[in-house]
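in:
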């Protein structure tokens, strides 16, 4: 991780890595969008990536997915060979039934059965013979998740997968994604604009700003209110400040508004020996 990243916890040294990126750089013409980025993601770890519009989140995800061959740098990019990508639009093949969309390119035995089971996992029971055009946007996105996870990927890359959905459907998709991740245990990198989505889903949140990962914080929410709500509010304020969003002061908790996420509630696997590197002035 770059020296100027604001980090609130030291990650365990001996954890198994799903992703290891060193010195990743991407330029478009003379413009450097990703500037010598370092990142490690542990096996099964759920990481959210926030950043202002145009900060390079999708560019970073595309580089990890192997969809960008113009990434430069002297460093290395190690990602598992079994990875799946989900985008904001479901990108289903309209001429194929759902079961054939999900099983498309799937190797091995019982391909149709596995695809049907994956559709059931996302709540689309008895819909395997439907066509994509017969589904709502949320249902199509569930098929995209089924297609991604039927491969049991070690890494799931998701680029604003719920960005086009209404608020209620998005909440349902959060619950579904959480359940699917418990089931399949992939490492996840979720690109999102939605600070609350990041807080509720991720174990760790990054912010990409001016080509660098400037924030890297663990998230561990207490199980019960009101401690949970307080911690969510505190992390939200912290992230919004680092995203450059003006925040109204909160009158009853003025001292907390500048504070980082609570060290004491940080996830056990990311809370050892807290260190903090302030961004260079
Ligand atoms: N193929 C390309 N050619 C030139 N510039 C590009 C190309 N792809 C991306 N960029 C530029 O790189 C920058 C980062 O784009 P990217 O899509 O990664 O940002 P983002 O953080 O995902 O944005 P958003 O949140 O708005 O989706 C933008 O300024 C964009 O114009």
């Amino acid at each position: 991780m770059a020296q100027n990243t604001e980090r609130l916890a030291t990650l365990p040294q001996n954890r198994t890595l799903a992703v290891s990126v060193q010195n990743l750089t991407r330029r478009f013409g003379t413009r450097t969008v990703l500037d010598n980025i370092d990142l490690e993601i542990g096996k099964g770890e759920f990481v959210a990536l926030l950043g202002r519009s145009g900060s390079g989140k999708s560019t970073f995800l595309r580089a990890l997915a192997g969809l960008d061959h113009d990434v430069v740098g002297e460093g290395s990019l190690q990602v598992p060979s079994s990875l799946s990508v989900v985008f904001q639009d479901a990108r289903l093949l309209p001429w194929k039934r759902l079961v054939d969309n999900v099983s498309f390119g799937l190797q091995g035995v019982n391909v149709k059965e596995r695809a049907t089971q994956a559709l059931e996992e996302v709540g689309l029971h008895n819909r395997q013979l439907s066509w994509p055009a017969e589904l709502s946007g949320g249902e199509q996105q569930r098929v995209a998740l089924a297609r991604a996870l039927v491969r049991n990927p070690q890494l799931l890359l998701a680029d604003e997968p719920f960005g086009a959905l209404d608020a209620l459907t998005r909440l349902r998709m959060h619950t579904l994604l959480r359940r699917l991740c418990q089931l399949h245990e992939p490492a996840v990198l979720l690109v999102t604009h939605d600070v609350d989505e990041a807080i509720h889903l991720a174990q760790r949140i990054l912010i990409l700003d001016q080509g660098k990962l400037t924030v890297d914080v663990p998230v561990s929410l207490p199980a019960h209110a009101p401690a949970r709500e307080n911690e969510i509010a505190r992390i939200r304020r912290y992230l919004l400040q680092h995203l450059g969003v003006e925040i109204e002061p909160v009158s009853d908790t003025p001292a907390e508004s500048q504070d980082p996420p609570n060290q004491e509630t940080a996830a056990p696997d990311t809370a050892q020996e807290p260190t903090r590197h302030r961004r260079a002035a």
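note: Residues 28, 33, 51, 53-59 surround adenosine-5'-triphosphate (CB under 6 Å).
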